[in-house]
Amino acid sequence: MTVFAYLCAAAGVAxxxxxxxxxxxxxRYILINAGALAVGVIAASLIRRLKVRGSSFxxxxxxxxxxxxxxxxxxxxxxxxxxxxxxxxxxxxxxSLILLPAAMVHFASDRRWxxxxxxxxxxxxxxxxxxxxxxxxxxxxxxxxxxxxxxPTVALAFVIALTAFAATLLSADAVAPVPFVEQVVQSAFAxxxxxxxxxxxxxxxxxxxxxxxxxxxxxxxxxxxGATWLAVIAFAIVGSYPTPxxxxxxxxxxxxxxxxxxxxx
Length: 265
Fold this sequence. Notes:
This protein is mainly alpha-helical. It is 71% helix and 5% strand. It has helices spanning 2-23, 27-52, 60-75, 95-109, 113-128, 132-148, 152-168, 184-191, 193-206, 208-213, 219-238, 250-261, and strands at residues 77-79, 82-88, 91-93. Strands 1-2-3 form a three-stranded antiparallel beta sheet. A hairpin with a 2-residue loop joins β1 (77-79) and β2 (82-88). α4 packs antiparallel against α5 (113-128). The radius of gyration is 17 Å and the shape is globular.
């Protein structure tokens, strides 16, 4: 299933590249996305091997992710009142989009208290950034998990994520859209109907692994995977948030690959 998800990621990136090439995006956008896909698959494969050998992506690592997102809110790159990014080697990265999906998908299969607390800290971090899309994504993914597994650890993480999302609704979201990054669906259809349909096909491809695994014995993991990325896509369509895989941006590509590494065989 993980390899299948990588193929879905490659299809999404390729369809996005077709649109960006046709619409005249800088060539480096396409190259950076391709590089992010290669790095994401390699990193996810390494994480997958660690899981097979018995290492657990839970507990302390999840708390570390939460603290990292909290640090990003306090000391990250500020743009128009928001602090969601860090810059590495001249490339702007969004840690929440890279790390949270993987943490959420793993939590679906390993619902420990430490992981629940880590996700709670992450909710506070993205709420302070503020990032309406990622707090909403957290709430959507954890809400889907709570419907499957009504356990105290899930309920705690879900309630705090929902509270953080509600808090972001009280503040204005003033970050302006960037061409080929945000509002890609609208831009692709404005350019040509064919490119618009290609972008929709690329986004739909991201959800195929969730649909395929929804009838497995570990269906809640696939449900969370699907709910997480569906929420990311929905926020990208209705607001000025990065459009995953088909738009320019390394963070969502890395995040998708890492979350795919958390899927059951």
